[in-house]
Amino acid sequence: MATLATTPRAAGLVLSPDDDAVVAARAVVRFHLRAFGAAEPEARAGEVEPVHQLRVATRRLRAALHLFGSFLPKRFVESAQRELAWVASAIGGVRDLDVLAQTVQARAARLDPELRGLLGPVGIAIHERRSAALEALAKTLRSSRCRRLLSRLATFAEPPAVPRRRETLGRAVPELATPLIRAVRRAGRRVSIESPPPEFHRLRVRVKRLRYALESLRGLGIKSIRVLIARLERLQTVLGDTQDAATQTAWLRTYAATDGVPVASLLPVGALIQGLSRRATKRRRRALRVWRKLDKEHLLEAVESDLARRARAQGAGEARR
User: Fold this and answer.
1) Which residues contact 109 (CB under 8 A, 6 or more apart)?
2) Is 174 helix (H, G, I), strand (E, B) or coil?
3) Is the CB of residue 94 less than 8 Å from the CB of residue 130?
């Protein structure tokens, strides 16, 4: 789901084209692992923003492993990705309800006072399910399975005593980033106004993955990367709004179909569903406009070309040394 607050940039992480690619991977994982650790205590306590930060850190860890995966042990990457997905699911169970609660509150303000007054049971249901989701998250974070995962990531993130140079980041970056760029382009060109929510969500996942990867590569000093990141941020936001509207509509439909819910609450829930359905349609149209503008400007191709040019220049520079 989209965030309640703007997702922070990965400020403070600067990689050089001369860095060894594996050393760079360790640095990125170490950076986001620290962000995870910083957010964890307050997230366990149920604070809304730390839960969001914990989710962002987990997503960035997954994106880093995806970006550098071809340079890392396959079994390590697959295992870490699987376990991070498990942790992310527990975090998302809380975070999604936080976003839902804010949406219901905001949209309830547009209803007639009589209808708004009937939404109490919905708020109670959200609160109760969030409490259960928070308890499940705390259990996940305390578990030996989660601690083993964090320990493995921390061990990987530590710089080796004697680093072995395999390939510099500047030379490796086309191999790392080009598949992500092409995945966004393929997903984007498949969506249309008639596409179901999963296709928009697939595009969003790929956009997010590419954005996080490029943020890790800011230190390469390529202007087109900075331009594309800004466009991807905007596209990710509107795609997140689209996904929010779809998943929140589904939650409210499930609530309405649950045995024992107060009949009086069904009327305002129906009004919310109707409003969110209209919002989803508008957001799909906006997402398509943003995507088509990005595609028309050939920003993905520009970054792909600039990364290849950087790799050639890096290789030539290393050959002269």
Assistant:
1) 116
2) helix
3) yes
